[in-house]
Amino acid sequence: VLAALCFMIISVSSSFSFFGINIGEILAALIVLIYARNYRFAGGGTAGVLAAFTLMLNGSSDAGCIVFMGLAGTVAGTFVNFGRPAAASSYVITAVLSSVPSGIDREQILSYICMAVGALIFCFIPVEKIHNEQKRISGSYDDGSEMTRMISFRMKQAADALEDIASSVIRLLEQEKDP
């Protein structure tokens, strides 16, 4: 749910641009890096692909360099263990180097600037607070025992409901046998 909200925000904000700097692209870079930090390379890659797809649907920038956001998110997720600056710089460097063979034009340079701004914001915001808020909203838990208790409780409720249904069906069958 939170991921869908993030990509809706990217979609809406990608229509705002100031001097060629696209707000949606900045937010996309920030969100990809946050997901890379929280969920490592799989989260960064997935968020990168979704962010690129969202930006391309809105036609906010040159699709050639945005496509590499998935690869850049994967690399950032790999480097996140070395700190936020390493993840952010690997994100931008990977995006730039991936699209160099196809040639770089003005729109791509503006996209790289947006990625760099998003990466700088990522380095300076308190990502731990965002991560804790994200976990609170999504209902995920660090402590496995709490999650285990919740799952056990839900499974017991489901088992009780099935038991009630089974006993009702048996009663109905017995009533039909004994007219």
Structure report:
By secondary structure, the chain is mostly helical. 80% of the residues lie in helices and 2% in strands. It has 8 helices and 2 strands; from the N terminus they run αββααααααα. A hairpin with a 2-residue loop joins β1 (17-18) and β2 (21-22). α1 (2-13) crosses α2 (23-58), α2 crosses α6 and α4 (69-79) runs antiparallel to α5. It is elongated and about 85 Å long.
Q: How would you summarize this macromolecular structure in one to three sentences?
A:
The protein is an all-alpha fold and 179 residues long. The protein has helices at residues 2-13, 23-58, 63-66, 69-79, 84-99, 106-124, 127-138, 144-177; strands at residues 17-18, 21-22.
Secondary-structure blueprint:
Layout: H1 2-13, E1 17-18, E2 21-22, H2 23-58, H3 63-66, H4 69-79, H5 84-99, H6 106-124, H7 127-138, H8 144-177
Antiparallel strand pairs: 1-2
